[in-house]
Structures are given as structure tokens and as C-alpha cells.
Write a structure and sequence with these properties.
By secondary structure, the chain is α/β, with parallel strands linked by helices. The protein has 16 helices and 17 strands. α12 packs across α14. The structure holds adenosine-5'-diphosphate (ADP) and magnesium ion.
């Protein structure tokens, strides 16, 4: 009997070869993620006698439509009645003669995951991982251990396939895209393999209409589903934010550029942005402070140590910093002034403020002054060292009750982005020659810097 795995595409091969603890194959739809995960599970089951594999999707229907039939097809042979593994419908599992097992399950509700507590699977595959909550993922990691059925050594691992967007967008992005690890997490445990539909030869040849459907999606969804752009997802307040355009490498700022500061102060977070304006109306956010638990005098000190000898035209802050403290009779703004920092009151009209941020972030087509070549630009650029602003800006979501406002839950992304809002609402963005009203993103997949970033990781294998 032979298992016919057909031909695998290069990214699918990387997926199969990876041996990290957490392997994520993600990005665009149709890249061949589900296809290769079925193959990988079958190969593991055949190569490691006794291995216990759990494949999860969010709903039973998704499981049926996406895997049961396809796995049955993959695991049958050309000899009638002879199968590589038999499927038991009552328990939803594929049983291999060598004792290996692929168990299929789903987690419709948050707590459905608890049924796997206390169980042991050497391999867990989360299909469409961004549909799972962080709680579900965390609970499953506890079941990802040796089951005691195997006679050879194996390091338990989890596989994830996913598209951007969904309830699990943030945790998947943190672990695999932003790589922003906690102390307890080992960066080497994680690998991300980007998937693009254009790499799926089968689909490109047999179903070009599928790609056209993706091309016709609204811009945000198209960015997520066709190009696998993780900075864009449904409900995102700033879908215009594009890492490849808005984030730039730091450079030395010319002395004659005006500098500004915008800040938000609270004991939970002191968030500050340092911004320089060039002579053409571009703003460069070149530094940031993002620190919690600082009392006013400490915050003042931290700020001063970074301000050094530069002049700042304005230091914008929200109006509530002028509220008097009932006990001391002093306002936060007064306390900053006592430390030699004179703040300027910015408007706290949230809707107007966010619109102003949108104006600054807007992508427009303009022409190179010398060559006349058209290119895309934006008036706001962020130096890549401003990691918190870059991380939190794309996380802001619409407030369900007021779509023109940003939701304040979760709270963490709102501090540094509020600081940006105070700057943007205080200084209007200058209009540039826009040669094409229609926003067009000529997305060259080959040159997509979003992916070039991950080039190194792929080399590791
Ligand atoms: N290596 C391959 N050879 C042949 N067909 C493939 C291959 N990879 C994917 N496909 C087919 O392409 C289609 C889309 O793949 P799928 O795995 O469903 O994509 P995704 O899960 O990434 O959205 C499916 O019909 C699948 O069987
Ligand atoms: Mg799939």
C-alpha cells in the first residue's frame, strides 16, 4: 500500500519539514494549508507508530466539509476494501494498524475545549487557528504532551493554519508575526511559513475564478485573504495602515525640522511620541515612551532625559491633565510645568481626532519631483524603533456603538495611539498633489516586503 501525497509546493514542503514546537502556516486563502496538513498528519501517523494526533476546527460542519471526506480519500488505496486507516464515525477518528490515531474534533463554544483537558496528544493541529480564542489555545497546549503510546522519541508539537482576522487574530499575530514574546516563551519554538494563493499551482490552473473572487473582495478583506496581510482585518479602525509604507528605517533628522511631542499620561501608562516635521508636510514619528506605573515626577524625569537640548514647538496633551487634583489642588499639567515642561492642550474630540489620524495616514499617489515617476506616499511615517505605536495602531477596532470611534476595550492599545491622535488633531495634514483619486495598491507579490521580513526564518529549516 502506498500513500499518494502528490506533489507538494515549496512552502508546503517547509511546513512538512519544520520540527519546531509551534508551526504556523498562514496568510492568504487557498495556499494549500488544509491540503498539506492532512498529508502531514498522515505521514506522522505512518512514521511514528502509536502517535496520537488531534485535529480541531471550530465547528463540526467545517470539520466534515474540510477534512473527513478528504482524509478518507487520501487514506484509501487502489485495492477495494483495503484502507491505510479506517474511519470510525462514532468517535470521529482514523485508526492506523500501527496504533496511530487521528482524532477529529471541534470547539464550537469557548468551554468545549475543556473536554480535551487531561488528555494527551503528541500532535495538535488547529485548523483556522485565528478562529480560536487565546483561552482555547492555551488550554490545548496543556494536552500537547506524550501519550505513552509511542515507542520512539518525539517532541510534542502543534500545527496552526490560518488566515488573518477572527477572534484569534491578536494572539496568532503576536506569536508568529510580531514575535513579541513573554519571558516564559522561547522564540525558537515558533516558526511562521507565509502562504500565498499564487503559489498554489493547482488552484491557479484549475480554478482561476477563485483568485478572481478574492481579487474582488473589499480592500481590507482582499489585503487579508489574497495577500495574507496581517495588519488588516475586519473591524480594524485603520485598514489604511500599511507596514511597508508607513514604517521606515530610522535616519538622522535634519536640524531645521520642527519637533513636537504628543503624550498621554496616566499611572497605568505614560505614552509619548516624538515627531519631526519636514519642510514638505511629512511627519516622522521618530521615538516613543511607553511605560507604566510612573508617578508624575518620574514621568517628567523620563521625558526630560529624552527631550535633551532640542526645542519642541508644542508638547500636546489631553485636556483632562488640566483637571485639579482634589487633594493637592494641583493639576498634572502644572506639575509638568514645575519640572520645566510646558504642555499644550489638545482637543479631546475623539471622532474628529481619529479622522485627523486617518488624514495623516492616508495613502496617495504622487509624482517624484525629479523623474516624474508616480509613487505611493503618505504624510505620516513611523520609525521602526517605535515598536509600540507600530504594534498597537493596527490593533485598534471600531466601537460597535459608534463606528466613528475606536473601542476602548481592550485598553492596552489605546495609550500610545491616543498620543498620536492628540498630535494629528492639533496639526492638520497637508494635501499633496494626488494624481489618482482611486486608491490603488500595486501589490507586487515578489517584492512584498511583508514577506521578505520572514525570509530568514524560512532559511533556518
Ligand atoms: N500540492 C497540491 N497539489 C494539488 N492540489 C493542491 C495542492 N495544495 C493544495 N491543493 C488544492 O488546492 C485547493 C486549495 O487548497 P486548501 O488546502 O484548501 O487551501 P487553504 O486551506 O490554504 O485555503 C484544494 O482543492 C486543494 O486540494
Ligand atoms: Mg483551509
Amino acid at each position: 500500500m502506498t500513500l499518494d501525497i502528490g506533489e507538494l509546493y515549496p512552502k508546503q514542503k517547509l511546513f512538512c519539514k519544520a520540527t519546531n514546537k509551534y508551526i504556523c502556516y498562514g496568510g492568504a486563502r487557498g495556499g494549500g494549508k488544509s491540503h498539506v496538513s492532512r498529508i502531514k498528519m498522515s505521514l506522522l501517523a505512518l512514521n511514528y507508530p502509536g502517535i496520537q494526533i488531534l485535529l480541531l476546527r471550530r465547528t463540526l460542519q467545517e470539520l466534515r466539509e474540510n477534512h473527513v471526506l478528504q482524509l478518507q480519500k487520501l487514506l484509501k488505496t487502489n485495492i477495494p476494501d483495503k484502507r491505510i486507516a479506517t474511519y470510525k464515525e462514532s468517535t470521529k477518528e482514523f485508526l492506523f494498524p500501527n496504533g496511530s490515531r487521528i482524532k477529529l474534533g471541534y470547539c464550537d463554544n469557548e468551554n468545549d475545549v475543556l473536554q480535551y483537558q487531561g488528555q494527551a496528544y503528541e500532535v495538535i493541529v488547529l485548523e483556522e487557528a485565528t478562529h480560536f480564542t487565546e483561552f482555547q489555545f492555551q488550554t490545548l497546549t496543556e494536552s500537547n504532551r506524550m501519550s505513552g503510546n509511542m515507542k520512539v522519541k518525539f517532541n510534542p508539537r502543534m500545527y496552526f493554519t490560518c488566515n488573518p482576522g477572527g477572534v484569534g487574530h491578536t494572539w496568532v499575530k503576536r506569536l508568529f508575526i510580531d514575535k513579541d514574546y513573554k519571558e516564559t516563551e522561547n522564540p525558537e519554538d515558533y516558526i511562521f511559513i507565509p502562504s500565498l494563493v499564487f503559489e498554489n499551482k493547482y488552484l491557479m490552473e484549475n480554478d482561476p475564478a477563485y483568485v478572481r473572487t478574492l481579487e474582488n473582495l473589499p480592500e481590507d478583506r482582499k489585503q487579508a485573504m489574497l495577500y495574507g496581510n496581517w495588519d488588516v482585518f475586519d473591524g480594524q479602525f485603520f485598514p489604511e495602515f500599511r507596514r511597508s509604507l508607513h514604517v521606515i528605517d530610522p535616519f538622522e533628522l535634519p536640524k531645521n525640522w520642527n519637533r513636537y511631542i504628543a503624550l498621554d499620561y496616566g499611572l497605568d501608562m505614560f505614552a509619548v511620541l516624538f515627531i519631526a516635521l519636514d519642510t514638505k508636510g511629512h511627519a516622522y514619528v521618530y521615538n516613543e515612551i511607553h511605560k507604566s506605573n510612573l508617578i508624575v515626577s518620574e514621568a517628567r524625569q523620563v521625558l526630560k532625559s529624552i527631550m535633551r537640548h532640542y526645542n519642541y514647538i508644542h508638547k500636546y496633551a489631553p485636556p483632562d491633565l488640566w483637571n485639579r487634583n482634589r487633594d493637592t489642588g494641583k493639576s498634572t499639567a502644572e506639575m509638568f510645568r514645575e519640572g520645566g515642561i510646558d504642555l499644550t492642550k489638545a482637543s479631546n474630540n475623539r471622532v474628529a481626532g481619529w479622522l485627523a489620524v486617518k488624514e495623516w495616514l492616508k495613502i496617495y499617489k504622487t509624482r517624484n519631483e525629479q523623474t516624474g515617476e508616480p509613487y505611493e506616499d503618505s504624510n505620516l511615517k513611523i520609525f521602526s524603533n517605535c515598536v509600540n505605536l507600530i504594534k498597537y495602531l493596527p490593533q485598534l477596532q471600531h466601537d460597535e456603538k459608534n463606528p466613528n470611534d475606536v473601542t476602548t476595550e481592550p485598553h492596552e492599545p489605546t495609550h500610545i495611539t491616543d498620543a498620536l491622535r492628540y498630535f494629528c488633531v492639533s496639526r492638520t495634514s497637508r494635501t499633496h498633489e494626488i494624481i489618482d483619486k482611486e486608491k490603488t495598491f500595486n501589490f507586487d507579490v515578489e517584492k512584498n516586503t511583508h514577506y521578505v521580513d520572514y525570509g530568514e526564518e524560512i532559511e533556518i529549516i
